[in-house]
Amino acid sequence: MARHFWHGATGAAILLLSANSLAAAPLPANETAGPLASLAASVQPLGVAKVGTQTLPEVFRVAQIRAKTTRDVERERAEEAKKKQQKKKRRRRATRKAKPQAVNAPPPAKKPQTAGRREGSGVSLAAALITGGPALTSGVVWTVEPLSGEAPPTVTTNSQPTLSLPAGQYRITAKLNDFLQSVEVDIPATGLARLDLGFNAARLKIKVLPTMGAMPLENARIRIVKIGVDGAPPVVDANMAAYDEVLPAGIYRIEAALGLARVSEDIGLTAGANRTVVLNLSVGYVRIRARPAPGQEPLQNVAFELLPADGLDAAPQPLASKSGASAVFTLPAGTYRIVARYGEASRRQLVDIAPNTFSDIIMDLDAGQLVATLADLPQGSKPKVAFRLVRHDGNEGPNLILSRSGAKLDVGLPVGSYTVIAELEDGRQAEKSFIVEPGVRTEIALAPPALPPAQLTITAGIVGGGKLPDGDRDRDITISVTASGTSKPIANGNLRQNDSLALPGGDYEISATHRPTGAKISSAVSAAAGSKSKVHLEFPLGVASLDLAEASQGSDAEWVLTGIDGKPVARHLGAAAEITLKPGEYVVTLTVGGTANTAALSITEGKVTPVKLPLE
Question: In this model, does residue 582 exceed pLDDT 70?
């Protein structure tokens, strides 16, 4: 096969020849010898070159033929030999450099191939799912890299580019998603080379419909698994509106799901195939709400269950369950049983789901609400209460329907007659009967019998079991009694030794202050209702026992105690006294009739230190 091109006034013809056709085509009778015959004899079939699994087009060469003399032929052969030497040198220089291999691509051909040329300059590129298939118009990324390394690679996202390139050797790579094909070619100094590559892949498109003829679903979950590849992860497993990707040839299982609807299909993809799969989920939607009575607002805390339509007596496992103000289920078309539970009230109902439809169902439960609490509880107390609920069903007698522990009972109930019972840990009980009406909230405060108060006796002393001086007991000690967990005192005032406080049973914090010294102390106590308890508070203080040696002359004696800083801390008139002090060093000064005498004093916690001064 030959194509003729004429170049202006020179009259030279250019033929685009296949190497195989030159070797096989017979010469005309009048051309059995001469330049054309010698050229044909010198051309050998180049065959086909393979890269990976793809077959490149046959390599074409262009020969310019004109009338030649023997000298012209020899000169041209010499020039051709020179050009071949130059090419070999360039090739050797290029191969000395490391050539990175493309990921997932077959090794490059050992001998660079010459791409078929057309008129122009550079290279025209095209890629297809399979060699010889329709060219891809999008998604292909081309990289053209000079093997000489003298220029940076050219990268283009045009799927069918035509690039102007200088003559030389290049590695051309086509990438489509995870597919990669690479080949090395020679770009001639003149002419437009064309290169076609195939990926040995197939395109798969998936649409998931709620029913045939409807618009595709926007949020269906699509999962694709390649069959026969053990342990391989799914090709895709995500929510999406549609799927359109290129995959290797093979057998795949396609699964689509939305809510409780599921569908799957196994397909085979051959290289070059462009396959569209439509999956019909035949799915519908239902929203369920419940209200206590017709005309009222829907309840906020309802438990919803979805069950098969049959098996009512066998208590089947729910297909799905949700709690709250409403429940929305996405279901395959069919009949189902829905259940709404509000406390002890419930209702069942059958529902038919049609493809690509939305059903809104409101269930009337014919129920009311009970809120039961304990009344007159002491501030801060958290008693443990056991509630029991008894329903009265006509002639059948009382029927215990609920037993629950907690500080409060809040439950939905079917209409009817009931009795609620609250029992405390100590055995005290309270109960009340009531009637539940549709949509009515019933509040009941149960008051168990009161317990007798606890009797608490508070005494005070110094550490080690020592007693406070008599003068300190009533006027100089204040106390405060606070229930644990609160800040407001329920009793406070001056301490009276051996007096009792009547308090409700519970836990308390007792704080005491010794006003003359500022010493403070606190103690926790538990007082059970009806019990008698005693609390002894010990201050971290000592006692100075003052005594005048000549007692008969001490009627006008004055004692003054000062700290080491010189500040007075206590004063007493009389021949003898007991004074409570904080541990530390003091100076005692005794003055009688204008005569003073001093002595050092050391007070120890929990000790009584005697001080006896004579008159000087």
Answer: yes
Q: CATH number of the domain that 328 lies in?
A: 2.60.40.10
Residues 263 and 206 both lie in one domain: yes
In whole angstroms, give the CA distance from residue 478 to residue 473: 10
Greater confidence (39 vs 174) lies with 174
Residue 402 resides in a domain: yes
Are residue 371 and residue 436 in the same domain, yes or no? Answer: yes
Q: Which residue has the higher pLDDT, 117 or 214?
A: 214
- Boundary (domain end) residue, out of 21, 45, 74: 74
Residues paired with residue 35 on neighbouring β-strands, in sequence order: none
Same-domain status, 307 and 328: yes
Residues 466 and 525 in one domain: yes
State the Cα–Cα distance between residues 426 and 442, nearest whole angstrom. Answer: 27
pLDDT digits (tens, 9 = 90+) for 213-248: 999 999 999 999 999 888 889 999 999 988 999 999
Q: Are residues 123 and 57 in the same domain?
A: no
Residue 421 amino acid letter: I
DSSP 8-state class, residue 149: -
* Residue/partner pairs of 604-608 with CB below 8 Å, 24 or more apart: 604/542, 605/462, 605/463, 605/464, 605/540, 605/541, 605/542, 606/462, 606/463, 606/464, 606/466, 606/540, 606/541, 606/542, 607/464, 607/466, 607/542, 607/543, 608/466, 608/542, 608/543, 608/544, 608/545, 608/578
Q: Which tokens hold the place of 352? A: 């038919």
d(CA 462, CA 244): 90
Which of 71-85, 227-241, 248-262, 588-602 is predicted most confidently? 248-262
0.70 exceeded by pTM: no
Q: Are strands 584-592 and 595-603 parallel, antiparallel or unpaired?
A: antiparallel
| Percent composition of the chain: helix, strand, coil (DSSP 3-state, to 5) | 10, 55, 35
Phi, psi of 119 (to 5 degrees): -65, 145
Q: Judge contact between 114 and 49, C-beta under 8 A.
A: no
State the residue range of the domain holding 325: 284-354
Q: Please check whether residues 330 and 394 belong to one and the same domain.
A: no
Q: What's the domain count of the chain?
A: 7
